[in-house]
């Protein structure tokens, strides 16, 4: 019965990782979160922006600028009374160092952008929805007023496929936003995955700009929450990793370690190890395994005890 439970949980975990339905929780917008991006020029012609399935996107890490985002709880702001979350950012873009705060309403199933600080504060009326949850083909639109007039904003989930960045390769959706006012018309694109939320975004302003996520905590799936309640914790660090990981089993004894990919396929066994004390580290050299960047499931077995842990392998 216990082995059936672990097999069942493994199937749930794999299906969760593979789902192409992006929800508000996947964005990782929560108090205490830190999400950092690198910024640079976007070569639009090298990116597949056509609609449909089976797309392949690959973004190298830009080196020109950056955006650092920190998230905090919010309440009682006179200009943003409905905000329950704020994002304080510092950015260096186009040679200009800037800082400010964006106010959000995270009222799952959607996240609403209410405005941001300025002189005066820029308040959207009504707030701008992200259109969550996102699935291929979904559309939404609205008219939104602010200090400098009105924008007609439309959104559409135009495509799905696989995206590769420094954080790995993941199933992803591409969302296109179109902003139109009396004097402006531009497009904004974002690529989303269940593991990291918005892993890259770009717009057609200022000569086309690209932002690629380089620092953020991966999301925890509901299956992993269930696993945590059922079994002892298997500690692995660093995670994400590129060359080496250290595995710390919850008890001493003989442990068999094995990896699975996100489709549930078993990879060659990592080996059998014996720990003589607790805690004791098991060193695994990832660089010798020939694994592609992405998400894997580490299985540790000790007799009748089986523990699962999600690990992320980054680009070396």
Structure description:
- With 316 residues, the protein is mainly beta.
- The protein folds into two domains: 20-215, YmcC-like fold (Beta Barrel); 231-313, Immunoglobulin-like (Sandwich), CATH 2.60.40.3080.
- The chain has helices at residues 2-18, 222-230, and strands spanning 34-41, 52-58, 65-73, 85-93, 96-107, 110-116, 122-129, 139-146, 149-165, 168-180, 185-193, 197-203, 209-215, 235-237, 244-248, 253-261, 271-275, 282-285, 294-302, 305-313.
- β8 and β9 form a beta hairpin.
- α1 (2-18) runs antiparallel to α2 (222-230).
- Residues 15-19 have low confidence and may be disordered.
Short key terms for the protein model shown above:
YmcC-like fold, 316 residues, Immunoglobulin-like, mainly beta
How many helix segments? 2
CATH 2nd-level architecture of the largest domain = Beta Barrel
The count of domains is 2
CATH class of the largest domain: Mainly Beta
Instruction: Indicate the radius of gyration in whole angstroms.
Output: 22 Å
The total of beta strands comes to: 20
- Beta-strand residue fraction: over 45%
What oligomeric state is this?
Answer: single chain
Shape, please?
elongated
Give the low-confidence spans: 15-19
CATH names the topology of the largest domain as YmcC-like fold
Helix content: under 10%
Mean pLDDT: 87
């Amino acid at each position: 019965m216990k082995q059936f439970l672990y097999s069942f949980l493994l199937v749930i975990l794999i299906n969760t990782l593979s789902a192409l339905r992006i929800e508000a929780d996947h964005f990782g917008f929560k108090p205490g979160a830190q999400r950092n991006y690198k910024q640079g020029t976007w070569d639009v012609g090298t990116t597949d922006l056509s609609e449909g399935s089976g797309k392949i996107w690959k973004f190298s890490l830009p080196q020109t600028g950056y955006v650092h985002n920190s998230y905090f709880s919010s309440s009682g702001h006179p200009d943003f009374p409905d905000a329950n979350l704020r994002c304080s950012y510092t950015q260096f873009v186009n040679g200009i160092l800037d800082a400010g705060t964006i106010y959000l309403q995270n009222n799952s199933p959607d996240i609403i952008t209410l405005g941001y600080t300025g002189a005066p504060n820029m308040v959207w009326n009504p707030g701008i929805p992200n259109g969550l949850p996102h699935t291929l083909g979904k559309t939404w639109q609205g008219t939104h007023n602010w200090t400098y007039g009105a924008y007609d904003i439309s959104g559409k989930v135009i495509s799905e496929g696989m995206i590769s960045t420094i954080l790995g390769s993941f199933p992803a959706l591409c969302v296109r936003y179109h902003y139109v006012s009396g004097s402006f018309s531009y497009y904004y694109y974002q690529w989303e995955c269940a593991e990291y939320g918005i892993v890259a975004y770009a717009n057609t302003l200022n000569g086309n700009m690209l932002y690629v996520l380089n620092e953020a905590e991966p999301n925890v799936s509901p299956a992993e929450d269930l696993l945590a309640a059922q079994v002892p914790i298997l500690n692995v660090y660093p995670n994400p990793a590129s060359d080496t990981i250290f595995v710390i089993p919850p008890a001493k004894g003989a442990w068999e370690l094995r990896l699975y990919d996100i489709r549930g396929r078993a990879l060659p066994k990592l080996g059998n190890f014996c720990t003589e004390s607790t805690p004791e580290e098991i060193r695994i050299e990832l660089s010798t395994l020939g694994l592609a960047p992405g998400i894997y499931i580490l299985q540790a077995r000790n007799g009748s005890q089986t523990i699962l842990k999600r690990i992320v392998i980054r680009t070396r």
